[in-house]
Structures are given as structure tokens and as C-alpha cells.
Design a protein that fits this description.
The chain is α+β, with helices and mostly antiparallel strands. The chain is built from four helices and eleven strands. About 25% of the residues lie in helices and about 40% in strands.
Length: about 180
């Protein structure tokens, strides 16, 4: 386990997860975000998932009505990307933006997705900012984009090995759909 984690990293080891608070010769301590402290002996560790190393990918999914102009959606995302890049603090946070993709045709509309590669931990700030800008821009674009529903999914990874893991599942926010 050479350089698998460092002090301050947020890691998942088996069923334990948290920020590394202490590392000794035989064990290390994780502080869960809700407070509990785990002491984990190195001998019991089979695998480690480091959630704060190297890079993170934020996938923003949203549902748009079937009659939405995809070209208009792409222009909105390009405009948002340009606005983010114009702010030096945010430009450091957001490394790349991939193209807008149509994921699936669903019962209520088209599932779209845009991906951003960020510094670890930056995906949460970026997600909040991009979702707010998307809602505003979609509302200004007219009625065919106003009904967009948003969700997100994060992937974390290491650039040195190319391996990726996922954290969380996509989550719908504000769609107004009732679940049975």
C-alpha cells in the first residue's frame, strides 16, 4: 500500500469511511463525517478507496422535454463554461468540460449529461454553481428548457493509475415526480 493515502485524505476502507486523522506504524485513524473515530489496523486492510486523490469527475444529469433544442442546450453549457473559466478561482477548480450528451429517452423527456473534471473536493462547489447557472439560463431560454430536472453523480479517480471508482448514485432534485 505505497502512498495509498495521506493525512487529511477522505478514504473508504471496508465499511469504514472518513478523513485520515492519524497514521502510526500498526494502524491509522479515520474520523467519519458524522463524528465516530475508527482505528483500523493495517493488517485488516484489503483495499482502500481514496476519494480525494488527484482528480474527480462530476457528472450532471438533467431531464429536458422532448421538444427541447439540443443545440440551444449545448450553447447554454458552453456559455456557463466560459463564465466559469473567466473567474480565476473557478478556472483553477475546473480542469475540463466534456461535451453535452444525450443519455436516454425516458418517459418524461430526454436524459442529458455534461461532465466536468475538477480538483478533488471541488466538484461540490462546481456542481452547486453549475446547477444554479443552468436553472437560470434554462429559465431565460424559454419554456422548452424551463422544465429541466437536475441530478448529479460523482466519480473520483487517480491520474497515475487510470483507475476510477464511484461514489454515490444519481439523485433527482426537484423533478416533481411522485414515487409510489
Amino acid at each position: 500500500m505505497d502512498d495509498a493515502f495521506r493525512m487529511g485524505d477522505y478514504i473508504i476502507v471496508g465499511s469504514a469511511r472518513g478523513q485520515v486523522e492519524a497514521i502510526s506504524v500498526r494502524s491509522f485513524k479515520l474520523r467519519h463525517h458524522l463524528g465516530p473515530l475508527y482505528t483500523i489496523p493495517f493488517g485488516s486492510v484489503k483495499n482502500i478507496q481514496n476519494m480525494t486523490r488527484d482528480w474527480a469527475i462530476m457528472k450532471l444529469q438533467y431531464l429536458v422535454p422532448f421538444d427541447t433544442d439540443i443545440g440551444q442546450v449545448k450553447k447554454i453549457i458552453k456559455k456557463i463554461n466560459k463564465e466559469i473559466r473567466s473567474v480565476p478561482e473557478l478556472n483553477e477548480l475546473c480542469w475540463t468540460t466534456s461535451r453535452v450528451r444525450r443519455q436516454a429517452m425516458e418517459e418524461y423527456g430526454m436524459r442529458m449529461r455534461v461532465k466536468f473534471m475538477t480538483k478533488p473536493g471541488g466538484q461540490f462547489t462546481l456542481r452547486k454553481l453549475v446547477l444554479a447557472k443552468m436553472r437560470k439560463e434554462f429559465a431565460e431560454a424559454g419554456s422548452n428548457c424551463q422544465a429541466a430536472c437536475f441530478g448529479s453523480h460523482a466519480q473520483f479517480g487517480r491520474t497515475d493509475t487510470g483507475r476510477r471508482g464511484t461514489s454515490g448514485r444519481s439523485r433527482e432534485q426537484g423533478c416533481g415526480k411522485k414515487e409510489d
